[in-house]
Amino acid sequence: MTPHPDRTVLRGGTVIDGTGAVGRRADLEIVDDRIGRIGEVDARDGDAVVDCARRLVMPGFIDAHSHADGAVFDADVQLALLRQGITTVIGGQDGVSYAPGDGVWASRYFAAINGPHPTYTGGGVAELLRTYDETTPVNVGYLVPAGTVRHEVMGMQLGRADAAQLARMQRLVAEGLEAGALGLSTGLDYVPGIFADTEELAHLCAPVAAAGALYATHMRGGYETNTAAGLREVVAICAPGKPHGGVRGHISHLHVDAADAERLLTEAAASGADLSFDMYPYTRGCTLVSMAVLPPEYSALDVDTALARLADPAERARLRAEWFPTVADKPSLGPGWPSMIRVGHTPAADWAWAPGLTLHEIAGRRGTSVEDATLDLLIAGRLEVNAVMAVSDERPIDNLARLFAHPAHTGGSDGIFVGAVPHPRAWGAFARFLGTYVGRSFSWEQAAVHLSSRTADRFGLADRSILRTGAVADVAVIDPATVTDAAGYESPRRPADGIDDVFVNGGHVLRGGALTGVVTGRGLRRSPSPSKGNP
């Protein structure tokens, strides 16, 4: 017999192919980076064989909303992703990331969200995508971040963009798409996205629509009770007949009661808007503390200016008297906000005790008011502080399960890997989808659709979400009896259980639950047009 050292056979598992078809017992052959035969595969000398008996062989999962843009090079982050079966993350989220430009502004502003990129210093989307080619075991797709685009053209200028500025921003979006970006993202509660009006966003979507790409948005207004207003703006941008000619839309990390979401999504569909959404299986969120508790204009200031203002006694008195009462009025927080914001990260060495504590607990330890403790925390951390955010209405599992079953749902973690006590969703979201919501929201066959093939279809990733001959071999092998998330709010950095073997572009990147050192991940470039026919 002729040896086949580049062939791997996953033998004796139940293949769930991502089409929604019923799983079947079969072997699966991987040759180089592609799937070969699925069925009965004869043994050959030199095969690498993985015993998949009593396990499921599924398409690798695609995290539709991740903040692993810079963290994906870290081995602990790679393990966290692969132990959930995630083979692709989509970065460039919330309108802020490294390219276009040199990445300096985005690295500072999102230091507590994305962190820095270890090698990117400029060159645009094409160069950023190259940094992911065979340097990591996980694939990375990228959305052109509209806030970064606006910052490149307008800095922190408030007000409407003029015609020349709009044209320059459109060119940057088009160049990013031509380089392979999967679409455009906005973060309309972050700066400078918060300063962009609906007309500007629609203009930026013109090249997105022309390319058949996707517009993904962190909607304006903080979700929950403001979801309806945010979704109206999305429909105004995405529905046919608008100045951009209509664009496919995607709502990031949807947070709202299931019945309200179903009604709003039905109304949006009736308008002709083609929308999908991602949503993670937790009710608590995670964001920048400064965004949650400071006036928006602070985010538009350079750090030193903002810190000087926060240290000024007169400004602190004004914030205590005029601003902090409005924090208690935010629908996403309410009067109990000091106990709802639990610090996840600060770079300040002398505040290393603070992560894991609420602002209320921090104030108690310091013997100061919550307002002063919060401002002191932000000053010490130079605004690089994130937190896990509780909500006033922690919806039950059945409420979340109802939305995960929606035909427009895709799996997303909104995973943030920065911090000593981060949100557990980065380590556990996809394992929780499987361990908790299979049987509630979907079958195993439909889980492959929600967590892989539908996401690939929406984001234009061809041949990477269906287990069929000739497709790219991104594959996760899952034990349905043991798969579960191990991370919790108190211990958020625990890798998931039940997924021990993962292949990315044919490379066996996770074996026996451990990294192999194989780095076959790639920066993924969008297909010329979205794939069709996936359920």
What labels describe this entry?
single chain; 535 residues; alpha/beta; TIM Barrel; 2 domains; 9-stranded mixed β-sheet
Question: If you had to describe this structure to a student in words, what would you say it looks like?
Answer:
- The protein has 535 residues and is an alpha/beta fold.
- The protein folds into two domains: 61-283 and 393-463, TIM Barrel (Alpha-Beta Barrel); 295-387, no CATH class.
- The protein contains 17 helices and 21 strands.
- The strands form four sheets. Strands 1, 2, 3, 4, 5, 18, 19, 20 and 21 form a nine-stranded mixed β-sheet that branches. It has a six-stranded parallel β-sheet with strand order 9-10-11-12-13-17, with helices on both faces. The chain has a three-stranded parallel β-sheet with strand order 6-7-8.
- Helix 5 (163-178) packs parallel to helix 6 (198-211).
